[in-house]
Amino acid sequence: MKKKAHILQVKEQDGYQYIELPDSLIKKMGWKIGDTIDWQDNKDGTWSLLKVATPSKSKKNKI
Hints:
By secondary structure, the protein is α+β, with helices and mostly antiparallel strands.
């Protein structure tokens, strides 16, 4: 799997820090509003963001 890095500016407002993900990056990653994203510390000053897989509705047990 090919990995790419994106450098984002950490912003601050009312004492909280945050980043804004560009729409182009969100679209490229296949993410959408409501997705759960897991932050993984790479232990080298960088982080990886990965979408958490959700169970498929078709795989639910039927009664």
